[in-house]
Amino acid sequence: MKKQWFAGMALSALVVLAACGNDSATNGGSSAAASSDGTQTITIGSMGSDAQIWEHIADSQAAKDAKLDIKVKEIDGGVELNNATKEGEVDVNAFQSWAYLVSYNKDSGAKLAAIATTYLEPMGIYSSKIKDIKDVPDGALVALADNPANTARGLLLLQAAGLVKLKDGFDVGTGGTDDVAENPHNLKFELIDDTTGPRVIQDVDLVLIGNTIALEGGLNVLKDSLFHEEVSVDTKANINVLATADDKKNDAGLLKLGELYHSEDTQQYIEKEFGGTKVDVNKPISYLEEK
Q1: pTM for the full model?
Q2: Cα-Cα-Cα-Cα dihedral of 96, 98, 102, 105, to 10°?
Q3: Quick one: which of 70, 196, 236, 243 has the fewest CB in 10 Å?
């Protein structure tokens, strides 16, 4: 009887331990799994040229030395990438500007957090009809991205180029064409799917295109645009970030990703592949949060 009792107790203990182990794997606060040698597996959601960069980082010796096994999962669409991060399908994402993240959180009620800055990828003003930004005619048709963050970003760039003046207190995350206070050239605005920017150059007078899309369309913002963003306090909302779920923002493994991005090896790769169009910005998140 004693032997049977002890055997029963041992079996019960194993069942309880197994159940606890399953709960830890399913519901634990850790953002990514760690192997027996301490290597942490992290899944990064990304797309386009950003995914290409993270594939390079994933294969680097620096990632191995940091004991990170990085998996890159390509997902098309900004909202889809943020949703995947919110739902835990990926641990962190790499694709969006600070303004886009703020706008997504506001619109969706989500709580995604930025954990590192990466780069400013300048938005540019392009045209196949106009050779100089000073020669924009009255009544010119201007195509802007049809999402809040990039619509606002495009309008700020038009203001920097001297083509419009925006209302005081313009919201860099959600401001729209109704916030144009002065429009001396009587520009006409058309909102488009921002991925179609390179394809509509022939159909409009000016089109504002983010550099990821421009690169995919064979355009170099530093060489082919009439006017483009520069790194300054006025463009800090457009700095790209790594984002994760709020409850993972202090995860030690995820925080190593920023260091890997800003490493000399990674920056040399980016310069070679993208011709200087992804301008390295290594700032604390507090810099973005300052008003």
Answers
A1: 0.75
A2: 40
A3: 196
